Amino acid sequence: MAQTYRFTVNGEDREVSARPDLPLIYVLRNQLGLTGTHYGCGLEQCGACMVLVDDEAVYACTRTMDSVANKSVLTMEGLGTREAPHPLQQAFMEEQAGQCGYCLSGILISAKALLDRNPNPSRSEIATALDGHLCRCGAHTRIIRAIERAART
Amino acid sequence: MINQLPASVAINPRFDTWLRFQAGRTVRVATGKVEIGQGVVTALSQIAAEELALDLAQVVMLSGDSDAGPNERYTSSSLSIMDSGAAIRAVCAEARALLAARAALRLNCAVEQLTVAEGVFAVDGAASGVTYWDLADEIDWTQAATGTAAPKDAKDYRIVGKSIPRDDLAEKLTGGAFIHDWLPDDLLHARILRQPGPGAVLQELDEAAIKRAAGGTEVLRSANFVAFVGADEQAVEAAAAIAPGLAQWHGAPSISPGQQEADWLRGQASDDRRYGAPDGAGAGDLVQATFSRPYVAHASMAPSCALALFRDDHLTVWSHGQGMHPLRLNIAKVLDLPESAVTTRHMYGAGCYGHNGADDAALDAALIAVRMPGRHIRLQWRREEEFGFEPFGPAMLIDMSIRVDQDGKPADWTAEIWSPTHVQRPLADSGSLLAAEALKSPPSAQISDDPPEERGGGGTRNAKPYYDIPNSRIIHHLVTDPPVRTSALRTLGALPNVFALEAMMDELANRAGDDPLAYRLSLLSDPRARGVLEAVAARAKWPERGPGGESRGLGLAFSRYKNMAAYAAVAVAVSVDEEVRLKNIWVVADAGLVINPDGIRNQLEGGAVQGASWTLKEQVTMQGAGVTSLDWDSYPILRFAEVPEIEAVVMDQPGQPSLGVGECSVAPTAAAIGNAVAHALGIRIHHMPLTRQRIMASLLR
Fold this sequence. Notes:
- By secondary structure, chain A is α+β, with helices and mostly antiparallel strands.
- Chain A has 2 domains: 3-78, Beta-grasp domain (Ubiquitin-like (UB roll), Roll); 87-152, DNA polymerase, domain 1, CATH 1.10.150.120.
- Chain A is 33% helix and 16% strand.
- Chain A has a 5-stranded mixed sheet, with helices on one face.
- The model of chain A has no long low-confidence stretch (mean pLDDT 98).
- Chain B has a 7-stranded mixed sheet, with helices on both faces. A 5-stranded mixed sheet of chain B has the order 12-20-19-18-13, covered by helices on one side.
- Chain B starts with 6 loop residues before the first helix and ends with a helix.
- Chains A and B meet through α1, α2, α3, α4 and α5 of A and α6 and α15 of B.
């Protein structure tokens, strides 16, 4: 039942054994140790699990392994590190854009997808790009400001 | 001199509970309060660094450890800076004084000649080379702190009052920092089949079908507690997903359609209390209105999670709950273990905003761990379990009845409140952990109670007006048998009570032909209360407000949280067509001495958004066997495109003690929205949430 899949994760070639219908999130977290991708609902409703697959933001909680074979996946760990943060991570730190932080890894991914296709988004374009995400703490205005800041850098 | 020993120090008097001088010229500072997204551990580290004259990097915080840290009960009620901050300030000031006394002996000088920076003493400004760490072993840190050393003068602060970025946020932005993200090598994943309600008995469970569908998953059963455990998380998840359809229960709850509404509460069995003035008859017109708020959810972004390991007769539980000491005691009680055989440790979770499923998940994990010794058990709730089984914020129904004098001012004020309890945390003598109900000997039913008035009350929280009103009273019907479990949700009863109270202030002002701001100010003698109201009105350009009634509204509201913590005034601009659109929110708060201004602004903004979400969108629905709002589609919250610009301002009062600030913007935001919508429509909507359906119904009336 399990099959071997090759794909690229954060720029590295990976080979995993998984069932074709296994959601990508389980492979990222439990096999590859990339736990920054968070499970929130499993229903494509909250966005906590967002990753890039070939530069498109997708829900890792429902995206199956057979659909990512030979593709390129980016998780929040692939953006940057605490010592060498990505401009988005840096901007989120500077704006203190977050409270509990659980939603942020997915939001960083959608923000990256947005800035890659639109380097100077308006406030409402940012809000639209984040429509697939929920934040329960109410850090929305800071998150939008952080993405505006990252766009300027 | 501190005259009074901080309460947390009285309970945890030994220095070494709070402080440990460690290698690398660092000091470990322990707190019983935990980081739940509010930035409090960073703020506490600022207080410690300030009093010990250390660099922030020299302070290593230990938070929420039942064995190594102080017992400060729960991280709740906006008390962390008031409780733990006061304790850490006193203990650190006294430790510095003890070390300075030793340094004076060592250096053969007077204490007055000494200064200290980064833990290194100087004599008359000349570096001595003697450090805290050279002297620490000469002091008996098992002794009790006395609280007699003078803390630093606020004018000398270098770190307190600065917007220090949060350490935990940097961690969370660059990797997996949550309890959910800790995956020890030997771990087994676990999920639960939840008992539908207390007293429900599992008649039949098709375990063979579950095992077929979820290969390698073990089914653990003890009375009505059922767990699925295995190394493959998705298989365990699959088992839990199909199990409810393969289980038959006897005595599951049966909820009738009307029970989800607040007006069901009127006339239900209740424990009745009265506070304030005796019954007033009096002359003058009576102004009356009824307000309500339905059951609402904490609705954490993450399903609750816990890890547990039972090894060598000792149980360790990792949890994102708000109180590690109470959790240890309660788990020990349920498992019939001595408290010394249980350790509880806090790890980061998603925001909880009160008592959600975190503690229950911890017991779930513990119950499995003691059955499967030697392995880390990682227990996670499912999304529908989180929405279906968390303890909800209770529905409330409020009758306001105000007698007005000849000048149109309130002379006699009555708030009559119906509400289930606002606190069933374990060990509140009225609550227990969820899974305990499913075990062979469930705990006996306990009488529900509310927090006492001196701690701010529960259903009565902020029901008493802060305004100058000759007579006021609260009649509180604590409804004893609600259809769902209820417990602490951010602000407890303050949101509905302030929504009702501040709506009445606007109505009374309109009735008297006064401006709502001027009317409030005429009834407020506390200058700090006036200060926040005047400041928010200026920011919102209140004098340009106009008569309203043209689909655009501006409303304001004030409250002092618990009538004893931070002051907050909020103004909200809305436009209303078929639904409410938030245009701007302005928040001004006075929280006394500010430890971290940006941290407070973050809380004020988040509280405003969350208050707006509860007010405009949220209601838990239930029918038949339980809750039916089991996902984010059926329980919508405010989204990115719906959040307006927010301006949050903190009035610094360095000469005043710090006031709990984390919850203060929530209730006045709800009330200001209610007032703005009334201004826009010319009609008041009394019942939350202020949905499109309610707007349309009120427009048709």
